[in-house]
Write a structure and sequence with these properties.
Blueprint: E1 4-5, E2 11-15, H1 17-22, H2 25-41, E3 45-52, E4 55-58, H3 62-70, E5 75-77, H4 82-87, E6 92-94, H5 96-105, E7 110-112, H6 131-135, E8 142-145, H7 154-164, E9 168-171, E10 190-192, H8 195-209, E11 213-216, H9 227-240, H10 249-260, H11 264-286
Parallel strand pairs: 1-4, 2-3, 2-7, 5-6, 7-8, 8-11, 9-10, 9-11
Antiparallel strand pairs: 3-4, 3-6
């Protein structure tokens, strides 16, 4: 696959789905600037990943990002439909799986996101598993994340990583985080307290296996959502998400959560992804 790569090493990939679908458009440009600054302050270079007129790009220019943000509709793309949107010469916002794919193709080994996709819960016999999980078996990229969104089946998602042979390590945590919550009922394979030690492990593991690594960085303690309040919001949001299914379930539920929490979940989302960008920058800078 031909990828236009403008990333300057050491680089940290940043996804466009967060900017185009994860926060209100009015806040997207500001958030992009904050994430870029967080990466730079940690010693690395930010590289926003997206598809512009069918061109997979690692390191969007400011003008390209503005064009995506101004477009009436930009579809989220995963590994299954990436080729279609490239063929159609369309714009696309990259999810975790496609950001990993394009970052790997461009030689970028570290990626900062908010939360991973995972195994959905409460859908009976309908199998609903994010493409993000399989991407770790294909692309040698370390993804710094605050675990998986709490509306998913967190424990089942952690078990799938185990089954796929994907290492899950924690940065100053022994528990697998659940996005707005610092801890879940699942654990990690190993805990690292020193960014330099973590960077050495990541570099060796990516080279050894050719697979990805999950680096868990819990939401900052000051920004964690109260668990009991979260449970109430989640129950209400899930009930009110209505007939949404498949790819529409998560955005519909998250949108309702932002409303019910009066923006608290959105503020938490921004805080955790900024923390992840800073840690990803520290890892990338030490992998050189």
């Amino acid at each position: 696959m031909n990828v236009l790569c403008r990333a300057k090493q050491p680089a940290v990939a940043l996804e466009t789905t967060l900017l185009l679908h994860g926060v209100p458009r009015a806040e997207s440009k500001t958030l992009a600037g904050l994430l870029a600054a967080d990466v730079r302050e940690s010693g690395a270079n930010p590289a926003i990943v997206g598809v512009v007129h069918g061109v997979p790009t690692v390191g969007l220019s400011e003008a390209e990002l503005d064009e995506l943000l101004a477009a009436a509709r930009v579809e989220k793309v995963n590994s299954a439909n990436l080729g279609i949107l490239i063929h159609r010469r369309a714009h696309a916002a990259t999810t975790v799986s496609t950001t990993m794919e394009l970052a790997a193709a461009g030689g970028v080994r570290v990626f900062a996101t908010g939360g991973l996709g995972g195994v959905h819960r409460g859908y009976g016999t309908q199998l609903d598993i994010s493409a993000d999980l399989a991407a770790f078996t294909r692309f040698p990229v370390a993804v710094v994340t605050s675990g998986v969104k709490s509306l998913l089946d967190v424990v089942a998602t952690r078990e799938v990583f185990e089954s796929l042979g994907v290492p899950v390590v924690g940065y100053r945590t022994e528990r697998f985080p659940a996005f707005y919550l610092r801890e879940s009922d699942a654990d990690v394979d190993e805990t690292f307290d020193d960014p330099a030690d973590l960077a050495r492990f990541v570099a060796a593991e990516l080279a050894r296996t050719g697979r990805g690594v999950v680096v868990c960085n819990p939401i900052p303690k000051s920004e964690e959502i109260d668990r009991r309040q979260w449970d109430r919001w989640l129950a209400d949001a899930t009930a009110q998400a209505g007939a949404a299914a498949g790819r529409d379930v998560t955005p519909a539920t998250l949108g309702r959560l932002h409303e019910l929490s009066q923006g608290a979940t959105l503020r938490a989302n921004i805080a955790l992804v900024r923390s992840n960008a800073a840690l990803a920058g520290a890892i990338a800078a030490r992998m050189v």
